[in-house]
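We both want to read discrete structure tokens more fluently, so let's practise on a single case. Would you supply a protein for us yourself, any chain you care to pick? Would you write everything just below, so we can both look at the same thing?
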Amino acid sequence: MASNAPAQCCTIGVKHEGEAQGELKTIGNVSTYFSYPKDKSTANAILLLTDVIGHKFINAQLIADQFAANGYFVVMPDLFEGDPIPLNRPEGFDIMKWMQGPPGHMKERVDPIVEAAIKEMRKNLGVKKLGAVGYCFGAKYVVRFLKNGVIDAGYVAHPSFVDADELRAIQGPLSISAAETDQIFPAPKRRETEDILKEMSVPYQVNLFSDVEHGFAVRADLSKPPAKWAKEQAFYQAVQWFDQHIKA
């Protein structure tokens, strides 16, 4: 595996303040958050795949709006069919039992949601170039769908549950933000990921941020300057990556 399975740290973090600018609609029967750029163009788009806290988490919605403010049409589907994990669940919460079900949230249930969103974006919503962002849980599906004609470029932060063979199968540019302290994407997994990528022919980027933990790009404590800085820089990393590989 290029990253370990999700753990308790996937549900720990700080709720951020702000008012979401987008709107909830549906793709099929899946609740989906939409955020539009100022000019309402849908040509350059981002599919945002969340961590286990889901698409209604204000932190995720604010990030979607930030991408929209940078000129991207953003679509963020509910990957969990109404069954996300609330922020800061008790210590004894069994995330693997939640994933395995019933009903479960493994790839057999998540893949069709991602496929439907991509199909809707490309066929009915006017998307010409499509990037994908994945935080923690969502990173696996950025990697799985980073294929020619599907996702044009990917960005992931503190990925979890990514198989090495999934990483080897990517066909497009991939950028990664990693935390110094991360039991899911620790140094050996980062090394394995870099070793795989350097043998491939796709553009890649791996940035490591000090003084932060797994989840920082979404759930950082903004009262702590190093965490606030790292979260902001990880976002800028993603925007610059897409500006190069989606807009350019």
